[in-house]
Automatic annotation (TrEMBL):
Cofactor(s) of this protein: Mg(2+)
Keywords: Lyase, Magnesium, Metal-binding
A UniProt-annotated Pfam family: C-C_Bond_Lyase
Top-level taxon of origin: Bacteria
Descriptive protein name: HpcH/HpaI aldolase/citrate lyase family protein
Biological processes annotated in GO: oxaloacetate metabolic process
One MF term in the entry's GO annotations: lyase activity
InterPro entries: C-C_Bond_Lyase-like (IPR039480), Pyrv/PenolPyrv_kinase-like_dom (IPR015813), Pyrv_kinase-like_dom_sf (IPR040442)
Length: 395
């Protein structure tokens, strides 16, 4: 699979200086962690779950979470498990040419992992892993032990020897509470480091974090406008997202809104990027659906060290992916910084002659940018996120 594969070849050629690269379930974890992009959550109770998965893959979704936790009522869990097993069995009967996203199951308990893997049988081959909720050091060990103990010889054969990954969700009240945050993050750091080869990414559960104080951000605001939440994100990245080889990929928080709401503040999208043709109507549609807030939050996610995003509605996928494409200017800067002859450091003027590129301090940024370019591609010099988003929304 690859990002923007749902677009016609000639459209991709007109948009990309370097087209997105291919990846799959067997790709290295480092690649998959970046490739996750907009991870679409879907309740496991959906009666046409298999059909929905295939449909979303056709619209550009490359990662999905089939949820057995907070998205469904406690009383629905047994039925949701049965439906999930049945729907994945239906998917496994489809032809080998059927395009599917990376699939993860969000469980409630460690015991569910063992039980579901057993019930799925050969259908486990469709899975890339599990999402682990309310993750702490105390809960984490049991989740990882369950994951590894469930991988018997039959499961390993069905998976073709590849591992099942885990994506812990950082959302416990102990992270919000100032007096327990550092100890909680230190404990999480110990347990994810112990099972580092199984951790694909760490996910931020901002909705649960807000619930500890009865908070909910309005559609005019981002997670970074809620200072209690912003402080947690900063500390999580500080301790778990370092670029020195000890860190993990950390994904952006969910955006909750997808239909129009009464607006209190001015729109956050400038007119100039949308000043021609159909782009003007695109700007209007984005503002009407409060997608300008989502776009701003995606940019702030990246500025704060996060990659990808949790999504609860298909309309959020295209904006996340459009803003994940590396711009031609970013790519030029990254390539210049990583030129072999510049290994000794120094400062150089950017190819766009509008900024300073300092080789040693900007190296980690450049390496991260080129990893993103591998899976999301590089836009042509005259192509912005507006053209990428418009093309995605036309399909």
């Amino acid at each position: 699979m690859r990002h923007f594969e749902h677009l016609p070849g000639e459209v991709r050629a007109s948009l990309f200086h370097q087209e997105p690269g291919e990846f799959g379930v067997d790709s290295p974890a480092r690649t998959l962690a970046v490739a996750l992009g907009a991870t679409l959550y879907c309740p496991a109770t959906r009666p046409r779950l298999a059909e929905d998965i295939v449909k979303q893959a056709g619209h550009g979704v490359v990662s999905m979470v089939l949820c057995l936790e907070d998205s469904i009522d406690d009383a629905e869990v047994p039925g949701a498990e049965e439906n999930l097993v049945r729907q994945l069995a239906e998917l496994s009967r489809l032809g080998p040419g059927t395009q599917l996203p990376l699939l993860f199951i969000r469980v409630r308990t460690p015991e569910q992992i063992v039980d579901l893997i057993d019930r799925l049988g050969a259908g486990v081959r469709l899975l890339s892993g599990f999402v682990l909720p309310k993750f702490t050091e105390e809960r984490g060990g049991a989740f990882f032990e369950a994951l590894m103990s469930a991988e018997n010889a039959q499961v390993t054969e069905a998976l073709g020897g590849r591992p099942l990954f885990a994506m812990p969700v950082l959302e416990s009240p102990e992270l919000m509470h100032r007096e327990t945050r550092t100890d909680t993050l230190s404990g999480i750091s110990r347990i994810v480091d112990k099972y580092r080869e199984r951790v694909l990414a760490l996910r931020l559960g901002v909705t649960d974090l807000c619930s500890a104080y009865g908070l909910r951000r309005a559609p005019d605001m981002t997670a970074y406008d809620v200072q209690l939440v912003a402080s947690v994100i900063a500390d999580v990245v500080n301790m778990l997202g370092r670029a020195d080889g000890t860190g993990f990929t950390i994904t952006g928080p969910v955006w909750e809104y997808f239909t129009p709401h009464e607006r209190m503040f001015k729109p956050q999208l400038r007119i100039s990027p949308f000043s021609s043709g159909r782009a003007e109507s695109l700007r209007t549609a984005l503002i009407e659906h409060h997608m300008d807030g989502l776009l701003r939050e995606i940019e702030l996610d990246r500025a704060n060290g996060l990659q990808g995003k949790t999504c609860i509605h298909p309309t959020h996928v295209a904006p996340v992916h459009a803003l994940s494409v590396v711009s031609h200017e970013e790519f030029s800067d990254a390539v210049d910084i990583l030129e072999p002859q510049r290994g000794g450091g120094g400062v150089l003027r950017s190819s766009y002659t509008n900024k300073m590129n300092e080789v040693k301090p900007h190296r980690a940024w450049a390496e991260r940018t080129l990893r993103r370019a591998e899976v999301f591609g590089v836009a042509r010099e005259d192509v912005s996120f507006v053209e990428l988003l418009a093309a995605s929304l036309r399909t």
